[in-house]
Specification:
The complex is a heterodimer of chains A (259) and B (285).
Chain A (H helix, E strand, L loop, with lengths): L1 H9 L2 E10 L2 E11 L4 E5 L6 H7 L10 E9 L2 E2 L7 H7 E4 L10 H10 L6 H14 L3 H4 L12 H13 L5 E5 L7 H14 L4 E5 L3 H7 L2 E6 L2 E7 H6 L4 H7 L5
Parallel strand pairs in A: 3-8, 3-9, 6-7, 7-8
Antiparallel strand pairs in A: 1-2, 1-4, 4-5, 9-10
Chain B lengths: L2 H38 L5 H5 L12 H32 L4 H13 L4 H15 L6 H26 L2 H9 L4 H28 L4 H6 L19 H9 L4 H35 L3
Helix pairs in contact in B: 1-11, 3-6, 3-8, 3-10, 4-6, 5-6, 6-8, 7-8, 8-11, 10-11
Classes of the chains: A alpha/beta (259), B mainly alpha (285).
The complex binds adenosine-5'-diphosphate and magnesium ion.
């Protein structure tokens, strides 16, 4: 019993019996899952099974979708994130998100990175400069763009833009990083760089990554969650999932029998 | 005749019809412009630009109407832009969906199609009489503001709607509030469309005659208005006044004034076009 409560304390992102509806469409069915800290969790499953929807529950991005409804609870650091007294802005500073398609602001590289701090009212130029340099270094982009900080972020390549988006998210120092198929719009070399980066990030962050690519999940994640038609079918350590899955349907999916 | 042949002929016929229609429009416009320029261009000089109206066509000038139009332009912008853009932002970003909202939405769109003289009557009743503004510049500007508000509101909403969802999501995901997102991302991204809408609607406003006459703009203003509470006239009213005089000299004055009014609207349209193009080039997703 003592053992269990200690575990819950450490693992701070907990979903319990979550259901999601878009109008009459029941897209997440009674999912419960606990995210392990300082590790990478991969969400896999066929297209339309609800991976993005589930990921976007954690930073309440689905709130803007018409007809969105959910029940069940999601607890972050001991607090229900869908409760009335939660401060959305505060939540999103702690739970950052990187999207499928790189979406830099149509501003300079520099302004992209400091945006999250500017909106918090940080004006100290020296501090902002320092954050720009350190976050760009974290995403291995500093060498490539240090001479173009004042140029438009839209001029960067797709892979650079995606790393910039990660840097922008890291600048507000989240403890959890959500990534929705972050490499699906990138070429293989950029993808490799990004995977390396994600691997590096887990030292300080909890990463949840949706991926369509089974090899990617196998390469970088510690645990894998397999979604199928809105249900969480299996959640196991990645090694075990890919060598010896518990469920037959998981087996069928990861061996490419459907998808 | 084969079906193919018939289609071909229909196609060709329609093409010629379209060319004819275009040519008809362009040619009549050119004819009118040529005629006006021929009559009026020689009349445009310093005396004409700086003189008050007069009984004698060669002594008359447009200074009071020109300044009146500038006053109207600036005041209308000051009133209509914040209100219109504000309402557009509210309706697009804040107002929840409801019956009442749908009702407003339909009415605002419809208002853009109401004949301008109706706005004049409204202005006369509300601004000139009820609010005691009389036939002042302010009453005229308030009336024209109402006239162009729907256009600005719709332009603002459409431009906000056109901002890609990904930009909103990026901003929200970094912990921005709604207002921060609107102010720092959405408005800059939408500014091209909004500014274009504002300029075009203002260009329309300075061409309006009927509502201002109804509100009480004068046909004969022998002074240069210096404050919003002054009585006034505007260029289209001055032009109309001159055209309706029997003397040939006033017809020439009218032509000259038309050239100047057209120049102002062309310049405004040009700015709108330039701004939109520049903005389209800058922002591509
Ligand atoms: N904005 C939306 N409005 C309504 N239904 C949606 C929306 N987004 C996704 N859905 C539906 O929710 C289900 C899950 O979608 P999604 O979470 O995007 O799946 P995945 O990311 O696994 O491909 C699908 O059936 C999809 O049609
Ligand atoms: Mg998805």
């Amino acid at each position: 019993m003592a053992e269990k409560s200690k575990m819950v304390e450490k693992e701070s992102l907990i979903a319990e019996n979550v259901n999601v509806f878009y109008g009459d469409n029941h897209v997440i069915k009674n999912v419960s899952i606990v995210m392990p800290e300082n590790s990478i969790t991969a969400f896999i499953g066929p297209s339309g099974c609800g991976k993005s929807t589930f990921l976007r529950l954690y930073n309440r991005m689905n709130d803007y979708i018409e007809g969105f409804r959910k029940d069940g609870s999601i607890i972050f650091n001991g607090k229900e994130i869908y409760s009335k007294d939660i401060q959305l802005e505060e939540l999103r500073k702690k739970i950052g998100m990187v999207f499928q398609k790189p979406n830099p602001f149509p501003k300079t590289v520099y302004e992209n990175i400091v945006y999250g701090l500017r909106i918090q009212g940080v004006k100290d130029k020296a501090l902002l400069d320092e954050v720009v340099e350190s976050t760009l270094k974290k995403v291995f982009l500093w060498g490539e763009v240090k001479d173009q900080l004042k140029k438009s972020a839209l001029a960067l390549s797709g892979g650079q833009q995606q790393r910039l988006c990660i840097a922008r998210t890291l600048a507000v120092e989240p403890s959890i990083l959500l990534m929705d198929e972050p490499t699906s719009a990138l070429d293989p070399i950029s993808t490799a760089k990004l995977e390396e980066l994600v691997f590096e990030l887990k030292k300080t962050l909890t990463v949840v990554i949706v991926t369509h690519n089974m090899q990617q999940a196998a390469r970088i994640s510690d645990k894998t969650a397999f979604f199928y038609m809105g249900e969480l079918k299996e959640f196991s350590p990645t090694k075990q999932m890919f060598t010896n899955p518990k469920e037959e349907i998981t087996q069928n999916y990861i061996t490419g029998r459907f998808g | 005749m084969s079906k193919y042949n018939r289609n071909y002929i229909v196609d060709k016929t329609f093409q010629w019809f379209a060319i004819f229609c275009t040519a008809f429009g362009v040619l009549s416009l050119l004819l009118f412009l040529g005629n006006i320029c021929f009559d009026g261009i020689g009349r445009i000089n310093w005396q004409f630009m700086t003189s008050l109206p007069s009984r004698l066509p060669e002594k008359a000038g447009i200074i009071s109407a020109f300044v009146g139009t500038l006053w109207i332009l600036v005041l209308t912008a000051i009133i209509a832009v914040p209100v219109g853009v504000g309402a557009g932002i509210y309706l697009e970003e804040y107002a929840g969906k409801s019956r009442l909202f749908d009702f407003f939405e339909i009415n605002i769109t419809n208002l853009a199609g109401v004949p301008s003289i109706i706005y004049g009557l409204l202005g006369l009743e509300v601004f000139a009489r009820l609010m005691n503004m009389g036939g002042s510049i302010l009453a005229g500007a308030c009336t024209l503001s109402l006239l162009i508000l729907p256009v600005i509101i719709v332009a603002t909403r459409e431009s906000l709607k056109a901002v890609p969802k990904s930009l909103r999501e990026a901003s929200f995901a970094l912990g921005a509030t709604k207002w921060q997102t609107i102010r720092m991302q959405l408005l800059p991204a939408a500014s091209g469309g909004i500014v274009t809408g504002i300029i075009l609607s203002l260009a329309r406003a300075i061409g309006e005659t009927a509502p201002l006459i109804v509100v009480g703009a004068l046909a004969y203003v022998p002074f240069v208005p210096t404050s919003p509470t002054d009585e006034f006239t505007v260029m289209p009213i001055q032009i109309f006044n001159w055209i309706s005089r029997p003397q040939k000299g006033f017809a020439i004055d009218a032509a000259a004034a038309i050239i100047i009014l057209l120049l102002i609207t062309f310049v405004m349209n040009g700015i709108a076009l330039y701004y939109r193009n520049k903005w389209q080039k800058k922002v591509k997703w």
